Amino acid sequence: MGTGRRKKLNISNIYSFQCGRTTTRFDDDGSQIGGPGFSRVVYCNESDGVGQSYYYDADNYVRSTKYTPMSFLPKALFEQFRRVANFFFLVTAVMSFTDLAPYSAVSAILPLVVVITASMVKEGIEDWQRKQQDHEVNNRKVKVHRGRGVFESREWKKLKVGDIVKVEKDEFFPADLLLLSSSYEDAVCYVETMNLDGETNLKLKQSLESTSTINDDSNFSNFKAAVKCEDPNASLYTFVGTMEFQGQQYALSPQQLLLRDSKLRNTDYIYGAVIFTGHDTKVIQNSTEPPSKRSGIERKMDRVIYFMFFVMFLMAFLGSVYFGIVTKQDLEGDRQKRWYLGPDRSDVYFDSNRAPVASMYHFLTAVLLYSYLIPISLYVSIEVVKVLQTIFINNDIHMYYEEADKPAHARTSNLTEELGQIDTILSDKTGTLTCNSMEFIKCSIAGTAYGRGITEVERAMAKRMGSPLLVNGRDKYFDDHHDNDSNLSVKGYNFEDERITNGYWIHEPRSDVIQKFFRLLAICHTAIPDLDEETGKVTYEAESPDEAAFVIAARELGFEFYKRTQTTVSFIELDLSKKRVERTYELLNVLEFNSARKRMSVIVREDSGKLLLLSKGADSVMFERLAKNGREFEANTKKHVNQYADAGLRTLILAYRELTEEEYKEFNEKFTKAKNLVSADRDDLIDEATAEIEKDLILLGATAVPECIDKLAQAGIKIWVLTGDKMETAINIGFSCSLLREGMKQITILLESPEIIAAEKTGDENVIAKISKESVKKQILEGKAQLTASPTDPFALIIDGKSLAYALHESIKNTFLELAVGCASVICCRSSPKQKALVTRLVKDGTGKTTLAIGDGANDVGMLQEADIGVGISGVEGMQAVMSSDIAIAQFRFLERLLLVHGHWCYRRISSMICYFFYKNIVFGTTLFLYEAYASFSGQPAYNDWYLSLYNVFFTSLPAIALGVFDQDVSARFCLKFPLLYQEGVQNTLFRWRRVFGWMLNGLASGIIIFFICIRALDPESYNKNGKTAGMEIVGATIYTCVVWVVNCQMALAVSYFTLIQHIFIWGGIILWYLFLLGYGAMPATISTTAYKVFIETLAPAPAYWFVTLFAGTAALIPYYSYKSVQMRFFPAYHGMIQWIRYEGNSEDPDYVNMVRQRSIRTTTVGYTARSIARDNSLYYLNLERQPPK
Predict the structure, then answer these.
(1) Would the annotation count 724 as a binding residue?
(2) Closest CA to 425 of 751, 812, 898, 49
(3) Which of 11, 195, 263, 301 has a CB 3.0–4.6 Å from the CB of 878, allowing a cystine?
(4) Which of 163, 176, 428, 710 is catalytic?
(5) Three-class SS of residue 905?
(6) Given CA atoms 93, 98, 100, 102 in this order, what sign does their dihedral have?
(7) Which residues contact 46 (CB under 8 A, 6 or more apart)?
(8) Whole-structure pTM over 0.70, yes or no?
(9) 547 is in an annotated binding site
(10) What is the per-residue pLDDT across 234-268, written as a single tens digit (0 to 9) for each?
(11) Is 428 annotated as catalytic?
């Protein structure tokens, strides 16, 4: 079957590397083949599998699940019983079959079975969902050669090593492939590797010349080749091998290797041979097994349970010592002090002659009895709450990305409360920070501001002041539910201004300047156009989101860039006569952006022969390069730039100049000479040449695109970037999202010293490693010295991948971490996937704080799994990161709501819920202990067996679950308005030992009050009108009733936000207790035992029962109510102050709210707030300097 006419390609010099014919000579690069680590032999196009099936029988199936059908039961049971409380209850369940148990075995085993089964079912459902996602990827289709030149569709999972596949445009590569040919005559193809190394620009790959002519399906009927190459490894950037084809051997390089999960772009199709499959592919080699993650609160909860075990064993020990002493004294001659225990008839338990043994048996009995201090339903209740919390996250409309139809998706529910404790965010790249998209919102041209778009900052400011927005002289009212993105018809373009759009710019006073402005946007970039031949629509592949936004804006406003060749840039523009005119500019030079220049320029020649230099860059370097006659609009433009910065926008200045032929010739000679140098000062000479030509510019105006991380910075969260991008790109977008800003001191760690360059020329690896390690160590120490010398100044640490490899060395990594933690921003460039994982582990283990990793590519899998929480971006590329993440969101901007709202709520709910669980069990356990002490430590429980078993499972757990799911201390709006509220979780103020012990003390006080009021009120007075006294069954049921009332009413006092469900659960738990008394008491006495008709015949008719319940319940709640009232009125916590705002109706008082809000904004060093403060401070000190001395 034919594939049609092949494309021709002119290679552009703007790409990251030159693409020429691969040599056919087998040189020294192949000398390693056949040695250790280079033993793989692949026979291509062996349709019967003969040749490699013996060696490589693995298919292309990839699994990211935590369990397999065989491992689920043992592994899930291990997950459950590694929890110390569950293991303890397993032991007590086994011991309940002995005579030592104070209750029946069934009543002990049934709750444990319910708890463990529920948890395992939840784990199974979550892992099944992961399996479904694996199934989606593994069952993608690709065309595979089946023989005789015929290709058929086959699932990815069925691919074998040596298969010939045909991948078409915009498809992902299903395995690691050897490129054989493509739809281009030069056998090149464009590859997008964002999923692998984080880079957004396209890579150019090229096959061997010997296989480039095999360009049709039918040509593969007789194709045979043998590839000898390296064994599977994790190195994404290296490949060593040879191919034997038609009796000749050819050297292979990374230029011919297409990696799994990268995407074919701007190329109709390619043919490739499968080299590595499944878990042998390089991207999977960089991933790790999904770990069993547990939250910090859950780990601390284990320590609280250890403490409860200590208390329980201490109580059992003291009681047993007392019991042994009293038992020893029971028989004094013929006199029996505790005759009712029958010590003379006892074998061991109450035998006075064997008191030490009886004491030991009592200890075991007491441990079983006091085990109710440990809440058996705590773990399963937390599991249920977390599942319900994830449902709320998944269904949050504010985190739904309509454009891609993608909601947030929590793939595991184990870590929801960790979302409220994030100290450091590690992002895979700057593109993720900018959501891989930016929007063109405003611009200033010829001193006039255009664009009526509103940023979130402007909306918040207007709302705080209670006034309409004033945008370019017009009122625009804000709307809480407005979302710019939801209304965008064109991605990246959010510009509204009737003076400019629809060609009306030609009527503006300075239309000539406006034309030059948009021409510059259409020409000054390195974007690659992709023309859809069917629809005629042009899309762009750009190195950065802001560059894409500028090209799209130019297109939407009538300047459509549609073609690029090696030497030309073509676009269609709307000229001053409103006619669409096609123009082609000769592209002479591209002066690329870097961190020192902070600008980018192109030199082009018009059709008329005029030479132009078009430039765009940061205001700090552009204004100083303006010519005297080019500053006409400078004052107004600076004013607009400051306004845009205040509105949370990133700005660029646009300028141009005309060049004479002599100027250009002189520059080009100098520039070309500098580029061709191979010396240490090459970059300096290039910068010197560009600086001479980029001067005397004429200002056109400024552009503006939005920010995205300020709220997270205000919340005190640190943001690190671990990117595969080159340093210049990372720094550029670092400025764009305000991770970096003007005035921030940069500490750059590179391996570019003359000593290292000289050592690299020698080729001695040991010498290079030694010198490099010393250089990195020296630079790190110098950076620490800068931090020490200027402790109040913000610093940014920027380090490349080569340096990072040495910085992570065991002897240096702690020093590196100290430097990094002291900096406001950290950017690690050219990081490999394993380096990302190692840095994440270093931050997590070195700081001891909670870390969150966020990424969107397969190269981020290790980082996502190493962090406490891994967040995958599902809105851009592939599924590998999402499949390995804990939570998936469509865009980075949703992280703000995920953390500041859901994270805060989940942390507070889980913390309060756990404290409440310990409280209610201590209330219950205290009454058990006091009753046993009252009964001379005889092992007699105060309650019926099923009272004991159902206390945690039915009567008190549902209100706690409602608290964990629905409670809100403040609304979502206030969570975002007062970001410092998030620090409650980071500092763990709600689950520190002081708060836990406070709740325990409250439980102890409540238990003591209930017990002694009930005992004193019911004994020895007559209980009813017939003169009967209250027996054990009456006293136990009365105490139990008081406990149920108190713990449920305590919940009502602790809840901040009531819902109907909470009312049902709180008061329903109490009603359920009375219904149980009726139902259980109606059963035969052999089943209900001490509860037989106790309520209907004894408790209900007795006024004393109801009076004691009311009095004891009220008295037990007074300590908590008094403490909380004093604290809330006189010593409110930060969330308490916000609650007062809501309660007193001051939420609409801008002065009061602003006063409280100021306490929520920390001194930040990143984000537009920090940038605005820094600029205002600079202006303040500048004004002081300008004031005349008094």
Answers:
(1) yes
(2) 898
(3) 195
(4) 428
(5) helix
(6) positive
(7) 52, 162, 224
(8) no
(9) yes
(10) 887 788 889 999 888 898 888 899 999 888 988 88
(11) yes
